[in-house]
Specification:
The structure is a single chain. By secondary structure, this protein is of the alpha/beta class. It has 10 helices and 7 strands. It has helices at 2-18, 34-45, 68-77, 91-97, 117-125, 148-156, 162-165, 168-176, 185-206, 213-225; strands spanning 26-30, 49-54, 58-66, 89-90, 105-108, 130-132, 158-160. Helix 1 (2-18) crosses helix 2 (34-45) and helix 8 packs across helix 9. The longest helix has 22 residues, at 185-206.
């Protein structure tokens, strides 16, 4: 829940900081496991419209967007990490359609190294604005952290890198190691959200453009490590 929440919060903070609102934005979700289903749940709760879900065995497409109640039902019905629905479409059919669907938000939350150059191009041409990584290294690059597909995508849309967007669980560990903390859901989730927001504010101070966000974030992170 906390990782998916962080992915959704990173999108909300992106629009708050760079301008705009998540409400009414169309969302494509890759993977309906713990991260993808929770991320979709929280984005739908914010007023975004999930229009497409692609999972290992199939997917769902609804151009007008699923309601929050429908997303909640899909979240509750999933079997382990598996999307379950009586309306499930075959994987090949969804895979042919979903990447060219008009959408502004994409949360890749399946396995790493799946997103191809062709899929990126289709999403860019269809109006993609922001990609928030739920998977570690979501692009199909052989490089460990940042390859040519990730670089190309970062040059064309807002890419929130995984070490910011899906830091939720790591942040929970850090939070719980502090002294004199409140052991409540509100405190734990609020801390993760604030850490993600601060990271994006720091990026925006160096780069207020809607592109090259991942590169800027890497620059900040590497300077902190040296």
């Amino acid at each position: 829940m906390i990782t998916g929440y962080g992915v959704a919060e990173s999108v909300r903070h992106y629009y708050d900081i760079w301008g705009g609102s998540v409400e009414g934005k169309r969302v494509i979700v890759q993977g309906w496991g713990n991260v993808g289903s929770a991320g979709a749940y929280y984005l739908a709760q914010m007023g975004a419209k999930v229009v497409g879900i692609i999972d290992r065995v199939g997917g769902l497409i609804k151009e007008e967007g699923f309601s929050f109640e429908e997303i909640r039902a899909l979240f509750e019905q999933k079997e382990g990490n598996k999307l379950v629905s009586k309306d499930l479409l075959p994987f090949d059919e969804v895979n042919k359609k979903i990447w060219s669907m008009p959408a502004e938000i994409f949360i890749p939350c399946a396995a790493s190294r799946l997103i191809t150059q062709d899929q990126v191009d289709q999403m860019i041409q269809s109006g993609m604005e922001v990609i928030s990584a739920g998977a570690n290294v979501p692009f199909a690059d052989k490089e460990i952290f940042f390859g040519p597909i990730a670089d190309y995508t970062d040059e064309h849309v807002a890419v929130i890198p995984d070490f910011i967007s899906n830091c939720g669980m790591a942040r929970v560990f850090a939070f719980l190691m502090q002294n004199d903390i409140k052991m409540t859901d509100e405190a734990i989730f609020g801390d993760a959200s604030e850490v993600i927001r601060k990271a994006l504010v720091d990026v925006h101070k160096l780069n207020s453009n809607n592109t090259k966000i991942a590169k800027t974030a890497f620059e900040i992170a590497l300077k902190q490590l040296i």
